[in-house]
Amino acid sequence: MTQVANTLWVPRMAIATSPLRPAFALRIVWQETPRAISDAVAGKVPCEDSWRELLAKLEGFAQLKEGWNGYTAPPPQTVAIQNARLLLQAMQQDDLRPTRLSPSAMGGVAITRRQGKRKVLVECYNDSRVYALFSERPSAMRVVPITADWTAFERFVRAMRDYLNA
Amino acid sequence: MPDIPPDMMTRDRPVDPHFADDEILYRRFRPEDFDGGEVAPEAFELPDMSVNRQKYGPPKWLLLDEAFAHWGVAGFRVEDIPRDREMLHAGVIAYVLRPEHAPEKHNYPHSEVRIFCDGIHICRDQRNLHLLEPEFHLRWREHLSMASRVAIPPKDVG
Fold it and tell me: What is the pTM of this model?
């Protein structure tokens, strides 16, 4: 086992063999994937890359033009993207990955986490307001405003996790 | 510009204000808005949400433009809105929604779902969007997401 830069590498098999033909001795070493990545693949921890992709997707919303939805929806504005980024960072800190990230026809950015019959949809609007819908099929729902700052987002992510039993 | 079916042109036809409760209203949506077998609430909007009337054309007319070739079309009934029913928000704000036929030169079936607050039409031109509370439209759009059915599925969604 070797420890490299705080990453644990575990050899699965190491062979040094063929004493009859030492000139052709072969050493084959497989190494396990670093734990953070293998956990991510197993769905335990979101991979850093997937969070980076989400954030890149979010930044791409700034390129949308009016009518991006085939009608007259305004593009997400800077303040909506900033608030969405902050919320995504709070979710990343809590390892709660959204199941959906999208521009909203209402003007802004929508972040959804769906779990079974329940989902939480947060919309960060172009006028800087943020609202969350807690919805359970078939028809139970409630909507709450959220203050757009780090402390409130951290608290909200915990509430989201509790609601979704995630 | 796609070939417009002759029946889609308005020509000299008048506005038809009569909507049956079971008439379906169609709205196109992006493939990305097809989420878990449903059309996501982000695809629906207020005020003045554009739709096409089933009474005057099939859902495929919404996808005639090449840019929408891979998109989907959702449909919901007029009674799902529901129309002309006063809905109290926070116990004090009275919202009323209704479909209104708004033909365009090349799109006779075009209509809009409009919203009124205490009798005032909320719309961008009136600069009164502040009358539309997010608590209300989020609930309404989620309701519509649940009530809608896919009339034409988007092409690049498995």
Answer: 0.83
